[in-house]
Design goal:
The chain is mainly beta and about 120 residues long. About 0% of the residues lie in helices and about 60% in strands. It has no helices and eleven strands. The protein has strands spanning about 1-5, 10, 20-25, 30-40, 45-50, 55-60, 65-70, 75-80, 90-100, 105-110, 115-120. Strands 2, 4, 5, 6, 9, 10 and 11 form a seven-stranded mixed β-sheet that branches. It has a four-stranded antiparallel β-sheet with strand order 1-3-8-7, with no helix packed on it. The chain starts with a strand and ends with a strand.
């Protein structure tokens, strides 16, 4: 079984910074890609940022230039460094990964999410 667990969410002021972490554990053979999506109340889930095993990154339009995704392959951890946070960044941030196990070439996994609230 594979599990993703996020941490680092909380309350920050506009203009502040926050770093989220996500740890993948279980029967992992290879992590093809890992990253973050978020969802605010009443809105669709949107891409925040992802990173592949080769280091290629992709970001959502609203966070480009402010958020950075990085990884520690040895520890199966992905980070999301957020700076210059805005109230509209508020939402539940979910970790997502495409992971190969001994039984499957690649499947989607999701964490339960961590809440980020940006408010003065």
């Amino acid at each position: 079984q594979v599990h993703l667990v996020e941490s680092g969410g909380g309350l920050v002021r506009p203009g502040g910074s926050l770093r989220l972490s996500c740890v993948a554990s279980g029967s992992i053979f290879y992590i093809n890609a890992m990253g973050w999506y978020r969802q605010a109340p009443g809105k669709d889930r949107e891409l925040v940022g992802i990173i592949t095993s080769r280091g290629t990154t992709k970001y959502g339009d609203t966070v480009t230039g402010r958020f950075t995704v990085s990884r520690d392959n040895a520890k199966n951890v992905v980070y999301l460094q957020m700076i210059n946070l805005r109230p509209e960044d508020t939402g539940v941030y979910h970790c997502h990964a495409v992971i190969a196990t001994m039984d499957h070439y690649g499947q989607d996994y999701w964490g339960n999410g961590t809440l980020v609230t940006v408010s003065s």
